[in-house]
Amino acid sequence: SHDHWELDFEELTLGNELGSGQFGLVLEGRWRERKVAVKTIREECMSDEEFKEEARVMMKLSHHKLVELYGVCTQRSPMCLVFEFMEYGCLSDYLRSNKGQLSQDVMLGMCLDVSEGMAYLESSNFIHRDLAARNCLISRNNEVKVSDFGMTRFVLDDQYTSSLCSKFPVKWSAPEVIKFCKFSSKSDVWSFGVLMWEVYNEGRLPYENRSNAEVVESLNAGLRLLKPRLAPQPVYLLMEWAWKEKPDDRPSFALLLHELASLSDL
Ligand code: ADP
Known about the structure:
The chain is α+β, with helices and mostly antiparallel strands. It has helices at about 50-60, 90-95, 105-125, 160, 175-180, 185-200, 210-220, 235-240, 255-265, and strands spanning about 10-20, 25-30, 35-40, 70-75, 80-85, 135-140, 145. About 35% of the residues lie in helices and about 15% in strands.
């Protein structure tokens, strides 16, 4: 059947490899005069029946601060997901390669962009589950957009999906996610605090020399990531707010967006 989220593979031209992701290769491509990124999905990596169900929900999410999903080719193997092309690649690499050159305005702007995309997801009652600088991408006009929302639900690799395992993103996860897998927009807010920390540390990895177990232990003791040297105090206060132990004590994305916007007006 040709539903509106199903693209005709014949209309797709595939080009160079952009990278490789959780599910398989990511290729540059063309679709209807547009430059696109095509994620090819290795069958053993994804629960694809569930994904196909969810693809239509994800296609309804549309916002200029989210990387757009144009459609999927599910009729063939490997299955392909076709996304808006993001010229400057992922945020974490971008931060690292522009070290020492990012102004306060640019760093705050990056946080604002992400908070806008996330406020939209929050208002759509959609939980990202894996927000981090590596899952945001930069467009040709230097806008940061949120990518890969909800996708961890379809990962079949249990090294990745259990909080006790090596690939689980513990360093971005709220305590209730680590302990009970309790995901919510407020656990996304925690991850956003870590993303802000990554931005103001120019792409450094959080808790660089510590194991997941050590991170869990220090969080339990009430310790948090330290203020990045480049972060102004009001910005660090927002990070600390995002890292409150109780989800209810954390701000919503709507509120974070408002607070960040008022800092950028100063
Ligand atoms: P996954 O999150 O599924 O593990 P990624 O999204 O990290 O995979 O994709 C791997 C790489 O492919 C990224 O680091 C990025 O360089 C590139 N890439 C992914 N999506 C796009 C896109 N929409 N536009 C341009 N490059 C992309």
